Amino acid sequence: MQPPDIAQEVLSYGDGIFSVAPAQGNKPVGFFSTPKLEAMAFPVQFPTGRNTLDEVRQVKLSPSRYFNTRLFCVDTRFAKDQSYLFFAQFVTETHMATCSMSIQTRKGKKNAGTAGGFPNKMLQDKVELENSSKIRKRRFHATLRGTPAYWEKTLRDLHAMVRQLGKPTFLSLFLPRK
């Protein structure tokens, strides 16, 4: 009763036409280039489809400031929706990563003949480019949770706390500090 090859049957839309990658040849659409994405993804929170992150405002808001306002507002419908919380975190961290990458490319290795940025020689030399980006990633990605630079910074902060406050003990949790 079943076809001999189920995979072929699923891929076939009839008359010998197989569609493996229907979007092949198209350019991908950027996540943040879709207008009103937030309102389309969360129609319950945005019944009118207005006042989203990408609205034009007199005072420009960063994504972190926008989402803080949304989540700590008197209206709790945003804070109660777990998928909106993850969306807010994703957008905020993506924005931080994009901004740090922008800074990373602008603050290139300074040479005598350039005012900054990446000179052509450096872009062509793969080893030089990798070394340069490794140094900068530590500095610029230290704010992005989960990156190696973030954990290096957190470990250094922890060591500094132990040096300054002493080794933690069970009693140090309950006794007041001097």
Per-chain topology:
Layout (H helix, E strand, L loop, with lengths): L5 H6 L25 H5 L21 H9 L5 H4 L1 H25 L13 H5 L1 H15 L7 H18 L13
Organism: Aldrovandia affinis
InterPro entries: Helitron_helicase-like
Protein name: Helitron helicase-like domain-containing protein
Keywords:
178 residues, mainly alpha, flat, 49% helix
* Largest β sheet strand count, sense and barrel closure: none
Which band does the percent of strand residues land in? Answer: under 5%
Rg measurement, Å:
25 Å
Write down the overall mean pLDDT. 75
Oligomer: single chain
Low-confidence stretches: none
Broad structural category: mainly alpha
Task: Give the % helix.
Answer: 40-55%
Number of DSSP E strands: 0
Measured distance between first and last alpha carbons: 81 Å
Please work out how many helical segments DSSP would assign: 8
Shape verdict:
flat
Order of helices and strands: HHHHHHHH
